[in-house]
Amino acid sequence: MKESQFWAAIDELEGCADEASVHELHELLLGEEDEDVVAFQRYLEKHLSELRRRAEEAGNPLGEAEACAVVAAGKSVYTLILNEPAKFHEREWDCEESILLERAAPEVLGFLQRLPESPERGGWLDVRFGSDFTIPPIYEKSIERLRDLIEDSPEWSRWWEAAESPRLFIILELMKSPELREPPSLRRRHDIVEFSMSIDPQRVRRLRLPGKAKQAAEVACDDLAACLMHVSDALSLGAIPSFPRAAEG
Questions:
Q1: Residue 120: pLDDT above 50?
Q2: What is the spatial distance between Cα 145 and Cα 19, in angstroms, rounded to a whole number?
Q3: Distance CA 213, CA 217 (A)
């Protein structure tokens, strides 16, 4: 990322860093390579540091949130305040949420680092779990069988081709604690679509009892089908193909 690209990204904030505009910046950075996100953060830290140093020397010290608000206002405003720090007090600033700008790139990098490497088997579909309890092995195996059936289906492969992305990464969130449950979320990068969705944990936890192979296959089918229907709607892929039933085992 060049400095001109950094300022172009800042322009996406439309002059103010708040929860809504920083969310848009998040989405923009998610489409960049890791090294570009790192470069964005370095440029930001450099400009914030230089601005606060100049303001301190001029007797007009700025706090972190105030400096973030100046950068968020764009290159021309930043350059003006950098050269004449006293002008900061000549206008109204919305600094209530501007500190969110400083956290944007680190949060994106944290997300990107959690993405899995390309699976060795070379498939287009990957399914992982997020959980605050031990997931019954029989449920995991049912999900794996179902994933393999979908990947081996030409009909499903044609369906996913319309997404124009080589990989789909699904995270099944199984959280006992209600405060940890998030609404369905889809993110897109150059080489991956990531979708996460909270699943009813009680149905899964009941599979810990013996003799639950049939129920595990049914629960796995319901959960994965729900995720894939959300993905299909979000990406306008049309109706999903007929859903295979995982074999019991």
A1: no
A2: 41
A3: 6
How many Å separate Cα 96 from the centre of its chain? 24
Q: What is the pTM of this model?
A: 0.58
- CA 84/CA 42 separation, integer angstroms: 23
Which is it for strands 168-174 and 193-198: parallel, antiparallel or unpaired?
parallel
CA–CA dist 173, 16 (Å, integer): 33
Tokens of 85: 């720090």
Which stretches does DSSP call E strand in the chain?
125-131, 168-174, 185-188, 193-198
Separation between Cα atoms, residue 1 and residue 127, nearest integer Å: 32
pLDDT grade, residue 165 (50/70/90)?
confident
CB of 193 closer than 8 Å to CB of 235: yes
Beta-carbon count within 10 A of 89 CB: 9
Check whether 121 has a pLDDT greater than 60: no
- The Cα–Cα gap between 69 and 205 comes to 47
- The span from the CA of 71 to the CA of 226, in Å, is 42
Cα distances (angstroms) measured from residue 249 to each of 91, 209, 216, 220: 68, 14, 9, 13
Mean pLDDT in the chain?
88
Q: Where are the beta strands (DSSP E) in 89-218?
A: 125-131, 168-174, 185-188, 193-198
